[in-house]
Amino acid sequence: MTIKIIKNRSDIGAGTRGSDMGIDAIEIAAINQNNDYFHRHLYQDVETHNETIYNKYNNDFAKRIEHVVEQCQRVSNAVCENIVDGFFPIVLSGDHSSALGTISGIKAAHPKKTLGVVWIDAHADLHSPYTSPSGNIHGMPLAAAMGLDNLGCQVNEPGNATITQWNNLKNIGIVGPKLTPNHLIYFGVRDFEEAEKYAIEKNNIRLVKVEELRYRGLDICVKEAIGKFLDCDLIYISFDVDSMDCDNISYGTGTPVPHGLFPKEVMQVIEQLLATKKVCCIELTEINPLLDNKGNKMAETAFQVLDHISQHIK
Question: For the whole prediction, is pTM greater than 0.85?
Answer without folding.
Answer: yes
